[in-house]
Amino acid sequence: MRCLRALAAAASMALAARAAVAQVGHAPGHSPYRDIRKGHSITGMFGHISGNGGVFGVAPHDGYSYGIRYDIKNGSPIQIGIGFARADLERLIFDPSIPPENRTSVPVKQAVSFAEFNLAFNLTGGKSWHRLAPFIGGTIGMAFPSLTAEDTSGFDFGHKVYFAPAVGMRIFFTERLHVRAEARGTFWKVTYPAAFGHGEEWTTTPWLLIGLGYSFSP
């Protein structure tokens, strides 16, 4: 009987010590860490795409984007999602048949639609810190440009697969409502007609995004 009492007392002391260690430095309810709600979220996004459109400036760049993204988060630091966006951009018209000294570049409008898959890793795990949740991530997607009838140079941007590493931050106002800010470097390949004498190149197009998100459970 004494042995059982001693074991029970030891177990009680161990549980008390574990609880004390878990709360070191912060009283219950005052921890800077808060659980990020599991489930689904919808975020409306607004952004700005910059870049120079490649060596000739004929790829779409420089304009604003708007769209929506849908994300799923379980108990892990990983969050996956899909996104759709449209951007109203500009590009230059370049005529390689005109001598360089007489050549002028005319900017024209070109809309581009985006469909993408997103993956993000929350650097604070499944929690926010003082309502902040920084992340790193990456995106793979497809860009669908509109036609530009003004261009007779033979250049066609075409449908493009793109890759975009990203860093960002979510700021939680409540358990459900947050702001999301993200900076991307978007990589896609630009292929030129033979008359341009340049072949192809990979270009980097910066893309800054900010949005308002709402989390919910299914």
In DSSP terms (H or I, runs of 4 or more residues), the helix count works out at: 1
Which of globular, elongated, flat, extended, rod-shaped describes the shape? elongated
Strand percentage, roughly? over 45%
Mean pLDDT: 85
Largest sheet: 8 strands, antiparallel, barrel
Order of helical and strand elements: HEEEEEEEEEE
Report the structural category: mainly beta
Number of strands: 10
Q: Strand order within the widest sheet?
A: 2-3-4-5-7-8-9-10
Radius of gyration over C-alpha positions, nearest whole angstrom = 26 Å
Write down the CATH topology of the largest domain: Porin
Helix residue percentage: under 10%
- Ranges where pLDDT stays below 50 over 5 or more residues in a row are 1-24
Please name the CATH architecture of the largest domain. Beta Barrel
Describe the protein in words.
This protein is mainly beta and 218 residues long. 10% of the residues lie in helices and 56% in strands. It folds into 2 domains: 1-31; 35-216, Beta Barrel (Porin), CATH 2.40.160.20. It has one helix at residues 2-22, and strands spanning 33-35, 39-49, 61-73, 78-93, 106-122, 127-129, 132-145, 160-172, 177-191, 200-216. An 8-stranded antiparallel barrel has the order 2-3-4-5-7-8-9-10. A two-stranded antiparallel ribbon has the order 1-6. A hairpin with a 4-residue loop joins strand 3 and strand 4 (78-93). The N and C termini lie far apart (52 Å). The relative contact order is 0.20.
